[in-house]
Design goal:
Helices cover about 75% and strands about 0% of the residues. The protein has about 220 residues and is mainly α.
Amino acid sequence: MTDQAAFQRARSAQAKQAREASILDAARALGARRGIREVTLTDIAAEVGMHKSALLRYFETREQIFLDLTAEGWREWSAALRADLGQREQAAPAEVAAAFAATLAARPLFCDLLAQAPLNLERNVSIEAVRTFKLITLEEVSRIGAELHRLLGLGEQPAVDTVATATGMAGALWQMATPGARLRELYTSDPRLGHALVETEPRLRRVLTALLIGLGPASPVQAS
């Protein structure tokens, strides 16, 4: 009887995980098609084939779903960036900036999530959900920082500043680069408004190159 009860609990946990994964998959697909701001909890529930009230048994809010996807995005982007940087024994600031820009621009959903996380995703979830999310991002920032120290000699705070600038700008630039059909038509119809249309990767690369050159290597510790 004990073995059977344990088996039932394991099956229940697996079923719960499978349902949570299907909800995240649905939110990811909808977010990629429509943009995060346009996706409602009802939309996600319908995509999965369940009622909204049932979906709330798995996630506390719509924002928690997308915050979990943001954490997933941090892990995936960090791994890709570190794989790129890890292949290099040495690199100039421009090369590191290019790696940051390319890996971020290749992940439009993550860029969208980066913009939405501080604006609203972190504001409608439990404190524990925010704590978990922040600890995940801190771990990935630390891992990226180790590569920045190895290649460019950056200290902890300059490395944190670099990652924060890269991700913050990626989120903002992606929003600017995807204004929607009506605004895009306006911007392209008037040469005076052409500056409103931006390309995420080249601008991010230029800004990060300037930042990394300005930060320079960590100052050597002087003996007292």
